[in-house]
Design brief:
Keywords: GTP-binding, Nucleotide-binding, Repeat, Ribosome biogenesis. With 500 residues, the chain is of the alpha/beta class. It has 18 helices and 18 strands. The N terminus is likely disordered. Bound molecules: guanosine-5'-diphosphate (2 copies). One guanosine-5'-diphosphate binds next to helix 2.
């Protein structure tokens, strides 16, 4: 089991996105009407589904893909209903067989479904043959569906169907009912060892692979696509003024998109030769204030701006903080935490510093400049070094400092360390670990480490045996990583895997 213990704890959404790329895949196969869709829907609880087209010649068929959950097991499930290889129509048969086989070969397990009520059908035999022929390396689990009530079935028909299914030569069939949910525990028992094996295999092989694939994507993206910057904050802190100041200084590539309200302004400009796109979060806080608290945060509208941003500039009102001796507002703290949780870069912009100018304000100004970084550190203890910039949007002072920090943050966020680099580092850092105080024997425990993803940097530590690193050990690794590779101020993720 992978455990994600490091703070900032990735939110469900984004940690899933990452982990989902490393989930084993199961494809449901079977002749039409055996209940493939029904099973897919049950396992995904209709939390499906990325529907993608598989074009082949002129035929376009859908393969439904979803994330399945079965008593704590998580895997990807593919449903090929409507894509059956074994239709009467010969012309469709040939083409779809090709498509399905290609997809099947990328899966780890085939879940071969037969119909317990209809009984044996010659097409079941064809499916079996096809499985053996097109993907001999894919493990097959055979299940007899529509078997609800099998244990009180006086007709004996369902038991007979089990016997027939057994004859297909894929081991003991599992009686299930996609409709009623019976037999899901048995299905779990049959799938679990295979899924665990597949997962192990994925983790053994994928790190390098993921690295390569992602690297290409990311590099391409980093060069051609603009940095997405969100300007967030409560009403009246000066977001619009700041946006205008930034846009006026720079070469504006595109203005506010026509037909959009002031709430959703998207502009692109060039800063020091690099494209920056401002993504919408204006009006964010207004919406949140309608219903304060975490529930409001999950509102789709509010999520969007942050989710689309690479870096979020959180604007706060320096004058207010100084003169009311208030701390940052609750909503601001919530937003800051959330940005980091979502794995975005964060730059805190303390605006309206012009109102704290002059000798007479020296004390207040000094307090604000000390208080805000301290407070950010309290709000986000796990991410030290979040940049804080003091500006005056009205006087157009500090724009360059904001942008410098935004780019720096972005660069760190895109950091990619090679496995060799990391493991050289790992050996050294182990000797620095306060073994005596924590009692952790690192030598035999941590085997190696690899970065599986950037944006934000995400690492997997492989731990030998059943040993699990504790929260404090992961923190130690994270803070050492930050220190040694200059990754301060950005979210980092460390997952651990046991290598058994
Ligand atoms: P597919 O063509 O393989 O995707 O099959 P469907 O999921 O569309 O199901 C075909 C038919 O079988 C539908 O009428 C379903 O309601 C029915 N069905 C599916 N699962 C079960 C089950 O577990 N028990 C019973 N009795 N009927 C089922
Ligand atoms: P928004 O609601 O966050 O977009 O805030 P606005 O940009 O509309 O600004 C709210 C008010 O604060 C306006 O009256 C601005 O003129 C004022 N304001 C914005 N930035 C500054 C600043 O740096 N200094 C001062 N003194 N006022 C500012």
């Amino acid at each position: 089991e992978s455990s994600e213990t490091l703070n900032p704890a990735p939110s469900k959404q984004s940690s899933r996105n990452f982990k989902d790329t490393l989930l084993p895949k199961i494809m449901i196969v079977g002749r039409p009407n055996v209940g493939k869709s029904a099973l897919f829907n049950r396992l995904t609880r209709r939390r499906e589904a990325l529907v993608y087209d598989t074009p082949a010649g002129h035929v376009t068929r859908d393969v439904r893909e979803g994330i399945a959950k079965l008593a704590g097991l998580r895997f990807k499930i593919l449903d090929t209903a409507g894509l059956e290889t074994f239709t009467e129509d010969e012309s469709i048969l040939a083409r779809t067989a090709g498509i399905t086989a290609t997809t099947l070969r990328k899966c780890h397990i085939a879940l071969f479904l037969v119909d317990g009520r209809a009984g044996f059908h010659p097409q079941d035999m064809d499916v079996g043959k096809w499985l053996r022929k097109s993907a001999p390396h894919v493990k097959v689990v055979i299940a007899v569906n529509k078997a609800e009530g099998i244990h009180n079935d006086s007709t004996g028909r369902l038991m007979a169907a089990l016997g027939e299914a057994h004859q297909l030569g894929f081991g003991d069939p599992v009686p299930i009912s996609a409709e009623s949910g019976e037999g899901m525990v048995d299905l779990f028992d049959s799938l679990r060892p295979l899924l665990e094996e597949a997962q192990e295999e994925i983790y053994k092989n994928v790190p390098e692979g993921v690295e390569e694939i992602k690297e290409e994507d990311e590099e391409a993206n980093a060069k051609t696509l603009p940095l997405q910057l969100a300007i967030a904050g409560r009403p009246n802190v000066g977001k619009s003024t700041l946006v205008n100041a930034l846009l006026r200084e720079e070469r504006v590539l595109t203005g506010p998109e026509p037909g959009l309200t002031r709430d959703s302004v998207t502009s692109e400009f060039e800063y020091s030769g690099r494209k920056v796109r401002l993504v919408d979060t204006a009006g964010w806080m207004q919406r949140v204030q309608v219903k304060e608290g975490p529930a409001a945060l999950s509102a789709m509208h509010a999520r969007k701006g942050v989710m689309m941003a690479h870096v979020v500039a959180l604007v706060v009102d320096g004058e207010e903080i100084g003169n009311t001796r208030s701390s940052m507002r609750h909503a601001e703290a919530v937003l800051a935490r959330w940005v980091v949780q979502e794995g975005r870069g964060l730059v805190v912009v303390v605006n309206k510093m012009d109102l704290l100018a002059g000798k007479e304000n020296a004390k207040i100004r000094g307090d604000v400049m000390k208080a805000v970084p301290t407070e950010i550190q309290t709000i986000l203890p796990q991410v030290s070094g979040v940049p804080v910039v003091f500006v005056s949007a009205l006087e157009k002072k500090g724009g360059a400092a904001i942008m410098r920090n935004v780019f720096e943050c972005y660069e760190k966020w895109c950091t990619r360390l090679t496995t060799a680099q990391l493991n050289r580092w790992l050996r050294k850092v182990m000797s620095r670990h306060p073994k005596n105080t924590s009692g952790v024997k690192y030598g035999p425990k941590v085997k190696f480490m690899t970065q599986v993803k950037a944006r934000p940097p995400t690492f997997v530590v492989f731990v030998s045996g059943s040993g699990e690193l504790e929260e404090t050990d992961l923190r130690f690794l994270a803070s050492a990583l930050r220190e040694d590779f200059g990754l301060d101020g950005i979210p980092l993720r460390i997952l651990q895997r046991s290598t058994k």
